[in-house]
Amino acid sequence: MMRAASNILLLLAFFAVAPCQEQPAKTPPVTRMVRCGALIQPADGKVQHNVLIIVEGDRIREVRENSSDSSGAQVIDLSDHTCLPGLIDSHTHVLLQGDITAADYDEQLLKQSVAYRAILATRSVKRALEYGFTTIRDLETEGAGYADVDLKKAINRGIIPGPRMQVATRAMDVTGAYPLLGYAPEVPVPHGVQVVDGPDNARKAVREQISYGADWIKVYSDRSYFVRPDGVLDDIPTFTLDELRAIVDEAHRQHHKVASHAMALNGVHNSVAAGVDSIEHGNYITDADLKTMALKGIYYIPTIYVGEYVAQGRAAAGAKVWLDMIKIHEDTFHRALNAGVKIVFGTDVGGFDWGIDPAKEFSYMVKYGMTPAQAIRAATATPAEMMGMQNDVGTIAAGKYADLVAVKGDPLSDVSLLEKIDFVMKGGEVFKSPLH
Ligand SMILES: [Zn+2]
After folding, report:
1. What is the mean pLDDT of the chain?
2. b/e string for 129-145 if b means 16 or more Cβ within 10 A?
3. How far, in Å, from the CA of 81 to the mean position of ligand 1?
4. What are the residues whose beta carbons fall under 8 Å from the beta carbon of 124, sequence distance 6 or more?
């Protein structure tokens, strides 16, 4: 995510749940019961004990506390486990398989066909589900066109296993700002985004991406980061404010939302001024912009882990700014928490290898000042609201999808336990279980 605007790997959804043209191929008609030793309700962080969750088809019919009744129905016994709602990763790249170096990124765009990348992505979405992420917001395909729309379709049709998805398709940046860069002018190379200049073209690109299935519109708002002597993380903004405003206006006019990759001073400020719906990364945000974000309800997806993950290597390669950015990021996170900004769990996985469990992010959020309950809310109820899916996912309650995960032990005492999810149910279907 963060090789300057260049590598970030890297959105948008309907205000409502994803469109309903994709119905699951089959809905299990069975009634199932799941017994949980404990159940964390993320809205208030409360824990219920000895809970029986009654699932009918793909939805939860009832949640009973202190219940022993099983009425002879099939019971999945997780009485030695803690259950919580299916987790949500709000910043993924299923079509990217790690791009810690610029060479990794160029290799994928120059030497892998979109078809091959889509095959690899089927493995990424399966892994997401196995890690416990039953919903993801995938923030652009990095040169793989509209393949995310097809992955979402294949999952919704039950062809491949994977999480519920909201997708951003191609994302946008201006001429000269996004890889591939550095090749001879005579050599045409692909780009990891749709290159857009000018408010009219930007508006047209929004229309085009939505017509091909984008839920969210993603923009890259800044690049080329540097720390000023006064400690402020500065940047070169990409889009002009007029361009960003055109993008946001067109997306909102069509009831879609806008996610902005913005890591530093001007990128964040312009995005907030233009009225985007989420700030991605946000390593440095002024107090004034945090105040506006809290007032307008603009979400903040800090993606902490990936920054720490890439920093050492990039610093060793001479880019010391990455080490400074970690300290700045932690300070921003504290100030955002104190300002009451809605903070959402997102990892940028795909920017790092899908073999690493993205749930590592939880420990970083807690290290930076959240309680485990706050970090869990940031990966369940809050993103469900951000994605307009609050009636379907994010909490365990009657009427919602039967998306739930379970771990041994108490993640409210040790949030790193969420890296050991051993039970995953999505839409009433069990994808992972310790029971067999
Ligand atoms: Zn990203």
Report:
1. 92
2. bebbbbbbbbbbbbbbb
3. 33
4. 92, 94, 95, 97, 350, 354
Pairing between β-strand 278-281 and β-strand 299-301 as defined by DSSP bridges = parallel
Residue that is written with structure tokens 């066909």 in the block: 113
Please check whether residue 392 is in contact with residue 140, taking contact to mean a CB–CB distance below 8 angstroms. Answer: no
Q: What's the burial of 119, exposed, middle or buried (CB within 10 Å: 0-12/13-18/19+)?
A: exposed
Length of the chain: 436
In which band, very low, low, confident or very high, does the pLDDT at 386 lie, cut at 50, 70 and 90?
very high
pLDDT for position 187: 94
318 CB-near residues (< 8 Å, 6+ apart): none
| Mean pLDDT confidence for 131-138 | 98
Alpha helices in 231-359 (DSSP H): 241-253, 265-274, 287-296, 304-316, 321-339
Q: How far is the CA of 218 from the centre of ligand 1 (A)?
A: 10
pLDDT, tens only, 49-85: 999 999 999 999 999 997 776 566 679 999 999 999 9
Nearest to 352 by CA among 177, 93, 167, 83: 93
Determine the distance separating the centroid of ligand 1 and the alpha carbon of 435, expressed in angstroms. Answer: 35
Cα(391) to ligand 1 centroid in Å equals 27
Q: How far is the CA of 141 from the centre of ligand 1 (A)?
A: 10
Contact criterion met (CB below 8 Å) for 194 and 178: no
| Whether residue 328 has pLDDT greater than 90 | yes
Q: Give 219 Cα–ligand 1 centroid separation in angstroms.
A: 11
Residue 132 Cα to ligand 1 midpoint, Å, equals 20
